[in-house]
Amino acid sequence: MDTDAMTLAPALEMTGIGKRFPGVVALEDVGLRLEPGRVHALMGENGAGKSTLIKILAGVYLPDEGTIRIGGEEVALQSPRDALARGVKVVFQEIALIDEFTVAENLFLGEYPVGPGGSIRWRQIEDEARALFDRVGFAVDPRAKVRDLPVSQQQMVEIARALAKDARIVVMDEPSSSLTPAEVEQLFAVIRRLTGLGIAVLYVSHKLDEIFAIADTVTVLRDGRHVSTKPKAEHTEDSLIHDMIGRKIEALYPRTRGHVPGEIMLSVEDLETATGLRDIAFTARAGEVVGFFGLMGAGRTELAKAIVGFDRIRAGRIEIDGTPLSPHDTATGVRLGIGLLSEDRKREGLMLDLEVTANASLASLPKWAKGPFIDGRRERAAVQDYVDRFRIRTPGLDQPIKLLSGGNQQKVLVSRWLLKGLKVIVVDEPTRGIDVGAKAEIFALIDQLASQGLAVVMMTSEMPELLGLSDRIMVMAGGRITAELDAATATQEEILNAAIL
Amino acid sequence: MSDTSVAAPARATGLAANGQLILLGLLVLLVIGFSLGSAQFFSAENLVAILRQCALVLIVAAGMTLLLISAEVDLSVGASLAFSGCVAMDVTNKTGNFALGAAAGIAFGGLVGVFNGVVVTRLRVNSLIATIATLMILQGGVYLYTREAVQNRHQLPSFTTLSTGYVGPVPIPVILATIVCILAWIVLSRTVAGRSIYAVGANATAARLAGLRPERLRFTLFVLTGLLTGLAGLILASLMNAGQPTAGRGFELTVVAAVILGGTSLSGGRGTILGTILGVLVLKVIDNGIIILRWNQDLQMVVPGVVIILATWLDQVRRRGDGH
Questions:
Q1: DSSP for residue A154
Q2: Which of A34, A341, B9, B98 could form a disulfide with A12 if both were Cys (CB 3.0 to 4.6 A apart)?
Q3: Domain boundaries in chain B?
Q4: B69 vs A463, which has greater pLDDT?
Q5: Do A351 and B193 touch (CB under 8 A)?
């Protein structure tokens, strides 16, 4: 009866894997079994143990206990080199290519074929690169410098690099995080080719729609433990979320705000910028969420940066509650009541080394001032109020913000603006890098912002988020607004069609 | 649960205190060591002498601390120190008025700060490069201004009293340095301006998005550092009873070294005045000890160099020990 299982030994079988770090149990008794030619999804929130498991598989960490079998044979993966030699290729999330080298050079980095006298056979490298791209179906010029490629193509190169050698098991860690929907499709095509070759794929992601599109089996980890392994067909979105966060989310997109928006708080006319925006005109009213959708390069972030006064504008008129944003800078913007919640928390939002209080009160310092001095007690009380209200998980107000989770960091940044008191808040990819459980809280927060009478302008590339949160939807392509739709009646096709105009 | 960060208790302030404890320990060890080496070291006169030597560095280092926390640096302070001393002496000679001379010297330093500020915040030249260029301009410029030392021809007693006078047992430069440090400490720890300095240094983009004006703030800090350098130059001229165009060589390195030794981050966002004071004390105690023990004076450069590497390394070890 077990003949199938006998003939097809699992590509990988990890059993009883445990790993401890000082003070933390990262993994305890975790098992994972990959079948050749199948896509296995590994899911879990940040801190669930996904990264640790991958790193053990990649030979970066040694497990404290447990066994690893590859193709039925027990192995000890002592180093990344070991893992590679066993046919385990890991594509990490961060792109680790050398910018100044060509694509082909990067592919064969460290293993250049060498001719007589030690000269490198460049022609051969290029040819092999081309052959590899043909095999997996990439359209990337092997002679292009990595620096000149868009991030999405760099990611493709990174994946191709893992395939340059004979792979039996390919691990992809959040491979779609910087890809457009079209590129994700391309990625899936590549994955199907890989499985067609009998390769086992471990796909690590927290994007539910992708998991349902590509995975055969799903394993969920939580707090370093194995929660479930089931065929995809036995899961629903709710059951997956439940497994990941260990509780049920009542409503992902709660709605407490009314349906009749108030006065116009933001009006933009004939906006044009050096960053590629043209003829942008729209308004946002108090109590409404205006969602901007667009593919990568459509100009969402550029628009966000321009209307808050961060990027210069060439032409156009921006009014906050009837007052023109002039001079066009953020100091004026913040004074008039418009602020940006940036998509890039680390680079543009957080002061990582500073504590929660300083991060939260950054935009409202004058409020806590008595003359030139800061009234630290009032400041802390106000920040504490938001920490309580938003249930920000932190051991204290003096905790450096870099030690908080992404979701909690985001809540601190929202508090920063609420402490200041805004009329218009621009949120750019508000849930990027945030766990599913915390996402629901951020959605609730955005809804609350609108119900408190703020005009919310939301930039997003996530279709569910766009449809779930917006009142009106603006679609952008090539730096212009190509459609304005009512969120209640808009369809996914309509939106995508306008986005690829 | 889902998004609890695995976290130790708060340490934002503890961290700084911790680093200062190491410095304080080092200082105590140095004092004990030098005292054992020579009875002369641990005496009231020598203590006052050390403090006097600290004063000049400290006045400029206070400004430099603010500047470094905001993620900028000024390497022109040594050259500016010498030049403003010459200007102060020259103007006092020509006007016969100490107040005018002092004002001219300090104003000159301030102007250098304005220049640095414009080049860095308007022309957007990296401050390391910009202020090295200013250093070169000033080092050459001072010779165009005066070939040799500007001698004291006015013989105003107030001019020399500035550096040699005492209030009670405390030399006037030490009092000035103390006032400067207290003011800088208040600014950094208590005021909106201080918070803005940390914020701009920690993340200038975030600060700008929050409505702060990083350029304006940094410009102000360049001018402030310039003014303090002018003040130090004036004291130096008084101390040497001449405006020395060659004075101040390497002064900028001592200042920056002391500030960094005190735990201020070169990349901005972190630092304290207390740390800077300790950093200056450590460097100057080493200086003084080497002289008193009659060691080879070239060690005055070598030892602080080694100390800076050690201290910075220790700091990093400690941070790594913190788990990130």
A1: H
A2: A34
A3: 42-314
A4: B69
A5: no
Contact B3 A365 (CB under 8 A): no
SS (H, E, C) B15-49: HHHHHHHHHHHHHHHHHHHHHHHCCCCCCHHHHHH
Which residues are within 8 A (CB) of B324 and not within 5 positions of it... i.e. 6 or more apart?
Answer: A402, A403
What was the ipTM of the complex prediction?
0.86
Kindly determine whether residue B12 and residue A369, on different chains, have CB atoms separated by under 8 Å. Answer: no
Say what the pLDDT of residue A339 is.
96
Considering chain A, what is the average pLDDT of its residues?
88
**Contact A402/B at CB under 8 A:** yes
The model's pLDDT over B291-319, given as tens digits with 9 standing for 90+, comes to: 888 888 888 888 888 887 887 787 777 66
Instruction: Note the pLDDT tens digit of each residue in A336-345.
Output: 999 999 988 8
Q: Which residues of A touch B12 (CB under 8 A)?
A: 353-355, 398-400
Q: Are A218 and A232 in contact (CB under 8 A)?
A: yes
Please state which CATH number belongs to domain B42-314: 1.10.3470
Distance CA B280, CA B288 (A): 12
- Smallest CA-to-CA distance from A308 within A280, A345, A347, A266 is with A266
Q: What is the pLDDT of residue B143?
A: 93
Using a CB-CB cut-off of 8 Å, the residues of chain A touching B205 are 347-348
CATH number given to A264-499: 3.40.50.300
Sequence ranges of the domains in chain A: 3-245, 264-499
Q: Domain A3-245 - what CATH class?
A: alpha beta
Tokens of B242: 């001449």
| B4: nearest CA partner in chain A | A393
**Beta-strand pair A200-204/A217-222:** unpaired
Question: Percent helix, strand, coil in chain B (nearest 5)?
Answer: 75, 5, 25
Compute the Cα dihedral for B84, B89, B94, B95 and give only its sign.
Answer: positive
Q: Please tell me the distance from the alpha carbon of residue A318 to that of residue A424, in angstroms, as a whole number.
A: 12
Tell me how close the Cα of B195 comes to any Cα of chain A, in angstroms. Answer: 8
CB contact under 8 A, B199 and A362: yes
Query: Residue A124, SS3?
Result: helix
pLDDT at position A6 over 70: no
